[in-house]
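Structural prep section.
Before we set up the soaks we want a predicted structure of the protein with magnesium ion in place, mainly to decide which crystallisation condition to try first. Input record follows.
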Amino acid sequence: MNAPPDPQDRAPAERQGFWKRFSNSLDAGRQAYVADLKEVFGRAALDAAFWDDLEATLIAADKDLAAQMDARSRDLNLEGAPAVVLVVGVNGSGKTTTIGKLAHLLRREGRRPLLAAADTYRAAAIEQLRLWGQRAQVDVIAHQPGSDPGAIAFDAVQAARARGANPVIIDTAGRLHTRTDLMEELRKVRRVLQRLDPQSPQEVLAVLDAHVGQNSAQQVKVFQEAIGLTGLAVTKMDGSARAGVVLSIEAELSVPVKLVGIGEGLDDLNRFDPGEYLDALLRMEEAT
Ligand SMILES: Nc1nc2c(ncn2[C@@H]2O[C@H](COP(=O)(O)OP(=O)(O)OP(=O)(O)O)[C@@H](O)[C@H]2O)c(=O)[nH]1
Ligand SMILES: [Mg+2]
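Run finished without errors. Recording the tokens verbatim:
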């Protein structure tokens, strides 16, 4: 593997770029929302003073909110030899894409992730992960379609030990939270990992699609009960009028949002930053 670029040089500018893009991607949804408000209140009420008052009120409320959100630990626990990040969620929520982007993000920080293709239901799923492995320049451990996800998890951890890779990021098949048999399969994967290292998996991330809104709280609860979650990755925040979903999920559940995705490109994932996020949500100027 090539040496990753020095993260010290590039991270701040890129981080800023990410949240700027996040803010821009909200504009479409925000403009529709503002148009609705205009209809409700009538144009006359929407002068500059109205917006200033509204913004001040929101920001005042936001200070409490930010304090609450800041109190949560959002660091990924990547301490292990190797640490394991198990990625779960319902069908199509964005697991595989998030894993590809996360591998890229971690490489930029100087780590050497290894991907495990434990979604063995479809050959296409394995191919999709391989493609992300190429893009992010990380290795992918895969078996034949139909093989046992636990065996792949096992092999990936052994391979990571042999190669000095860390973390192992495990892709799993999408499963409806109502399918108890498939939840049992996840528990099996976890048992295999724990036999190799009682601390493993260090992270169990549920991937949620921002468009799903409130129903995602139900999904999280079921995954939480079945296997235990350490964090959430909220995807497809780009162009979603429901970017505020993070607020309600966090208010309702005890699982912190650790990652957010705003697109299908390599750089379209970042660690969740409540301050930047609230700023972007509250930035009203462009919409008015
Ligand atoms: N716009 C946008 N699209 C995304 C994002 N994340 C994922 N997608 C798209 O959502 C679709 C599903 O993504 P996958 O990563 O395949 O989802 P998955 O959870 O692995 O799906 P299954 O393995 O079938 O359960 C793909 O078309 C992705 O490109 C995002 O942050 N923004
Ligand atoms: Mg997938």
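Observations: The chain is about 50% helix and 15% strand.
Flagged for discussion at group meeting.
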